[in-house]
């Protein structure tokens, strides 16, 4: 069988064991995981859900795909994740903290505030396979969590995603939703999607999962070299909270916004694949500003014109952050070349 079969079930079980949850539900990609997790958790048209202003678009677009209104929270400048003190959960059914770059969000106060406000928590761990918060794997603390296995992630299935949860009802609904709403062959309980993972993807995932800790260890080694060598004038190395085990999906540096683009351009000119982050907070994207436009959003009939609050820290990060390469296949020679190139470029433009 090439469709969803024994390899998918084995991958689900082993991934659940790794994360420390009762259930794992494999799907076709990380966006699909977000979409059906939100539906399985009860997000419905005209509900509201909160997520980070500094994240990939799908953390918010999947809220819209449920017909719900996205809201955005500003972030902590050091971790670049949702700042629990800035979260406004009024009328929000779900909050989606993102473990950005592989650094865990500060989950204890997020969970405490969500419970107090009656909101569910969906962890977006698309960039954080193997990261830990106070000794607990990310993806095991919220009501549910999602992971992406896109080719650039810490582990890949070629393309794929996973939902983890300890909630039997959420898991069962997610399994039905991913498979055209079927409870059994050709028996459709509800309206669902073709979000299944294939056996081929799952087979790749099983091998990748066995290698994940060793690949993350190499990422950690590279990050340690970068942080030791690049703790210099002109840039700021990434902060790691004392309660965090970082997965180092990305290595973000910060610099003066007036120099950032030139630094990135010069690094690329010498063969270092530096890049900039998201160009603006998510709510500043034109698509988010025009949710009631049927040309841009097929669910526009559900939306009035939405006004979003500004998120100044997220806005600052979009202008000051840049990334340098970090990947387990990098050799020591590669790492040293990146370090020397960054130092050289900073001297050139200082």
TrEMBL record:
GO biological process: polysaccharide biosynthetic process
UniProt-listed SUPFAM superfamilies: PLP-dependent transferases
Domain of life: Archaea
Pfam families for this protein: DegT_DnrJ_EryC1
CDD domains on file: AHBA_syn (cd00616)
MF GO annotations: pyridoxal phosphate binding; transaminase activity
Key words, A-Z: Aminotransferase, Pyridoxal phosphate, Transferase
Similarity field: Belongs to the DegT/DnrJ/EryC1 family.
Protein name: DegT/DnrJ/EryC1/StrS family aminotransferase
Organism listed in the record: Candidatus Methanodesulfokora washburnensis
């Amino acid at each position: 069988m090439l469709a969803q079969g024994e390899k998918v079930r084995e991958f689900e079980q082993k991934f659940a064991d790794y994360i420390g949850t009762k259930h794992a539900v494999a799907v076709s990609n990380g966006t699909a995981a977000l979409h059906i997790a939100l539906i399985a958790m009860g997000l419905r048209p005209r509900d509201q859900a909160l997520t980070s202003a500094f994240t990939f678009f799908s953390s918010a677009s999947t809220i819209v795909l449920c017909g719900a209104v996205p809201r955005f929270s500003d972030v902590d400048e050091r971790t670049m994740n949702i700042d629990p003190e800035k979260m406004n959960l009024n009328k929000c059914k779900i909050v989606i903290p993102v473990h950005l770059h592989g650094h865990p969000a500060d989950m204890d106060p997020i969970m405490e505030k969500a419970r107090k406000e009656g909101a569910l928590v969906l962890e977006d761990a698309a960039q954080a396979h193997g990261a830990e918060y106070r000794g607990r794997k990310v993806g095991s603390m919220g009501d549910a969590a999602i992971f992406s296995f896109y080719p650039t992630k810490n582990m890949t299935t070629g393309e794929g995603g996973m939902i983890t949860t300890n909630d039997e009802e959420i898991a069962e609904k997610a399994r039905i939703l991913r498979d055209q709403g079927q409870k059994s062959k050709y028996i459709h309980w509800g309206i669902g999607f073709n979000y299944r993972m294939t056996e081929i993807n799952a087979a790749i995932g099983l091998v990748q999962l066995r290698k994940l800790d060793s690949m993350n260890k190499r990422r950690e080694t590279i990050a340690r070299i970068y942080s030791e060598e690049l703790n210099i004038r002109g840039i700021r190395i990434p902060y790691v909270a004392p309660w965090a085990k970082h997965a180092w999906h990305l290595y973000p540096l910060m610099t003066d916004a007036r120099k950032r683009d030139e630094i990135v351009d010069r690094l690329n000119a010498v063969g270092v694949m530096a890049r900039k982050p998201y160009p603006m907070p998510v709510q500043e994207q034109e698509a988010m500003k025009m949710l009631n436009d049927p040309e841009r959003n097929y669910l526009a009939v559900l939306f009035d014109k939405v006004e979003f609050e500004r998120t100044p820290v997220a806005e600052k990060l979009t202008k000051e952050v840049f990334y340098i390469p970090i990947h387990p296949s990098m050799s020591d020679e590669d790492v040293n070349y990146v370090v020397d190139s960054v130092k050289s470029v900073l001297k050139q433009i200082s």
